[in-house]
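Need residues for this backbone.
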């Protein structure tokens, strides 16, 4: 796991410093695929939501365990590059901006941005919601895909002709 030079809005001491340690420890345990350690961060009745899992909303350690085990089996390697921490006013919650760099069993690299929203109860994760940034799908996604391709092609033509790109 890499903690980047991103923005850290905690003072590094007290409750905020413990939250950073808990969150970085959580990500390290996921990268190590250590189910016991990872589950140890969650409260017994915790809630975990992630659009990448077969069951979007998991409640309680049994469901969370099943979801994590599925994830551990389907991913060769997890990688998290923490970009920034954004605590709530009372440090009971933290949003974490992450560059995910995962490797599938076939060796394909998946690289995308995610936001993890942690809510703590005492020292345990009470809820964790994961959000991924994807391009729009459907007709709008198709239109934007072609617009991006055309823009990219035009920019390459301008650069290769040593012209200044249009403003």
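Answer:
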């Amino acid at each position: 796991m890499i903690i980047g030079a991103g923005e850290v809005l905690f003072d590094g001491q007290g409750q905020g410093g413990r939250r950073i340690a808990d969150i970085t420890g959580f990500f390290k345990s996921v990268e190590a695929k250590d189910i016991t350690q990872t589950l140890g961060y969650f409260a017994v009745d915790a809630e975990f939501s992630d659009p990448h899992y077969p069951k979007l909303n998991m409640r309680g350690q049994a469901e969370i365990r099943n979801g994590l085990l599925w994830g551990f089996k389907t991913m060769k390697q997890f990688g998290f590059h923490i970009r920034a921490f954004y605590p709530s006013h009372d440090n009971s919650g933290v949003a974490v901006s992450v560059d995910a760099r995962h490797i599938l069993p076939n060796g394909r690299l998946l690289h995308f941005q995610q936001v993890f929203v942690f809510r703590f109860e005492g020292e345990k994760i009470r809820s964790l919601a994961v959000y991924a940034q994807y391009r729009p799908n459907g007709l709008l996604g198709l239109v934007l895909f072609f617009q991006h391709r055309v823009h990219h092609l035009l920019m390459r033509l301008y650069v290769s002709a040593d012209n200044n790109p249009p403003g």
